[in-house]
Write a structure and sequence with these properties.
Strand order of the largest sheet: 13-17-18-19-14-15-12-16
Distance between the termini: 87 Å
Structural class: alpha+beta
Radius of gyration: 31 Å
Number of helices: 11
Strand content: 25-35%
Oligomer: single chain
Shape: elongated
């Protein structure tokens, strides 16, 4: 069997149990995520997804990513805009294989898959161009024998030091020092797994007093032989014909051992001794294997620590964003005696960009603003607060809905990323003229409840989403309103709320409910109660904003 064929077999074997890191290389701010062996992750913008991608172009349940005994796969679940692997669109509801180095595009994000997050140095391995089986001796765990007592004591001391590491670089530095002290080798390196082109990443390196690995070459055959967690040894006196590159380096002994976490290869401990360097200790292979097991535990601890830190930072950001949202929601606006109104803002599981403002303009005029910024988290909340402040200033200065929305569209389009936009509804009620002048810029979620108890669906929005095209212009629409008529506007969390079986609440149920409701306050209370019962939980999938406003 050729070295190339062996490399392909090893690659397929490692892919089947690979722990893949999805690194965002393009798109909105996102921390990336791990796919653990034997797990399945759902991804989409829905709050029930394992990987939440807060972007309006992402479907609520966009797709799934899985790691099985046969390999890693991504499945698009019939999403609106699809999923792409290496620029090829995935067939809907069909598993598409993915492996290290693939580029996965989901909406505005492009993720690059790898087996490790952010290792610092990249190096190229040497292709020895010979059959591994003929030149590399594998030592299974059960064949290593017992370590001498003094080696065991040294290993215990090394374990204590290694577990003090606070990051990957520090761990690598400690492992290579321990490896040299316990084996007699001159040179040691902690390496991240090789990619298809033979490139590895150096986490830690020590050669005498030097920690510079830039002029050091590593044997690909040794790495391949150690890829399943055994210790691969190149024994003294057996190097003749092993490979021209190794012979040129005058290596007379070498050891390579895999560092495993839950049976997944995460790193290699690589040691070699060259001409005129001291001989290695007879139990060096056993010492290396013990050291690698301890390093594997340290890797796992660092991963858990990193996840805890990231989770704490995320919770802080979301709490700050949620507090900012709630500060901007109006409480008592002094609506006077000619308007009746009710409102509720109920945060979902994450901070989002729901926008609500009620602005008294006179005794007989009142402005209402409802909107939703694409995405979730602090970024959406900041854009929401900026847009709300801008709109409030325009309305209070006397601008009409069309002038206000045209201006805020230009403001957002020129200052926010391409993936950030708003749906927006801006209206001004005039009780004296008995009319509502409004602009519906892609919002669409509202109902008209007439004084006679009938409900109407609103006209189709004729305005573009806000923030897409800075040159877009908007036009006022006019709706006649009589005393007793009400406008009920709500966020998309209401019609899109699902039952456990996945059925959405829909807009028709909203129209039926408000038709039977007697007041604006009851509109809001009944609709929120019904949606909570529909969801089977007070924890709704999305932020929920409801406002009912009309002439008394």
């Amino acid at each position: 069997m050729t070295c190339s064929a062996i490399l392909q077999l090893v690659t397929r074997a490692t892919q089947a149990v690979q722990r893949l890191w999805f690194e965002p290389v393009l798109g909105p701010d996102f921390d990336g995520f791990w796919l653990e062996p034997g797990t399945e992750l759902s991804y989409g913008r829905g709050s029930q997804c394992d990987v939440k991608l807060p972007e309006a172009t992402i479907s609520r349940m966009h797709g799934q990513i899985s790691s099985t005994g046969e390999g890693c796969y991504i499945t698009d679940l019939g999403s609106r805009l699809g999923t792409f692997v290496n620029d090829q669109q995935c067939t809907k509801n069909v598993k598409t294989p993915i492996s290290t180095g693939d580029m996965v595009r989901i909406g505005p994000w492009i993720f690059r898959t790898s087996v490790r997050q952010g290792a610092p140095v990249a190096m190229q391995t040497i292709d020895d161009s010979v059959e591994v089986e003929a030149r590399v001796q594998r030592m299974a765990r059960n064949d290593l024998g017992a370590l001498a007592q003094h080696r065991l004591s040294l290993l215990i001391d090394c374990s204590a030091e290694i577990n003090k590491a606070t990051d990957l670089k520090e761990l690598g530095a400690m492992v290579v020092v321990s490896a040299i002290e316990g084996t007699g080798f001159q040179r040691a390196a902690l390496l991240m797994p090789a990619d298809a082109e033979g490139e590895i990443e150096v986490v830690g390196f020590l050669d005498g007093d030097s920690r510079d690995a830039s002029n050091t070459a590593f044997s690909r055959s040794l790495l391949e032989a150690a890829s399943k967690g055994d210790v691969a040894c190149l024994l003294s006196g057996q190097t003749a014909g092993f490979g021209d590159s190794i012979a040129d380096l005058n290596i007379h002994s070498a050891i390579c051992s895999g560092v495993m976490v839950d049976d997944v290869l995460v790193a290699y401990l690589y040691l070699d001794a060259r001409e005129q360097e001291r001989q290695i200790q007879p139990d060096a292979a056993g010492f290396c294997q013990g050291l690698c097991r301890m390093a594997g535990l340290a890797f796992a601890n660092l991963n858990r620590l990193e996840m805890q830190i990231n989770q704490a930072k995320l919770e802080q950001d979301l709490n700050a964003a949620r507090e900012a949202q709630e500060l901007l929601i109006p409480t008592d606006v002094g609506a006077g005696n000619v308007f009746g109104w009710g409102r509720v803002f109920k945060p979902g599981r994450e901070a989002s960009g729901d926008l609500l403002d009620i602005i008294p303009l006179s005794e007989t005029r009142l402005a209402l603003v409802v909107g939703d910024v694409s995405g979730k988290g602090a970024g959406a909340a900041i854009l929401m607060s900026s847009a709300q402040s801008f709109i409030h200033a325009r309305i209070t200065s006397g601008c009409s809905p069309e002038d206000t929305v045209t201006a805020v569209n230009k403001f957002v389009a020129q200052r926010s990323p391409m993936n950030r936009f708003l749906t927006l509804w801006v209206g001004i009620f005039d009780a004296h003229a008995k009319e509502l002048q409004y602009v519906d810029a892609g919002h669409g979620h509202w109902a008209i409840r007439r004084a006679d108890g009938t409900s109407e669906a609103p006209p189709t929005p004729d305005g573009f989403l806000v923030g897409i095209d800075a040159s877009s212009e908007y036009r006022n629409a006019t709706l006649l309103v009589e005393p007793g008529d009400r406008i009920i506007i709500f966020s998309d969390g209401i019609p899109e709320q699902q039952t456990e079986s996945g059925e959405q609440y829909g807009v028709d149920r909203v129209y039926e409910l408000v038709a039977a409701s007697p007041t604006a306050e009851e509109d809001v209370k009944r609709l929120l109660d019904m949606v909570i019962r529909w969801a089977g939980s007070s924890e709704l999938d999305d932020d929920t904003t409801i406002v009912s406003l009309g002439l008394t």
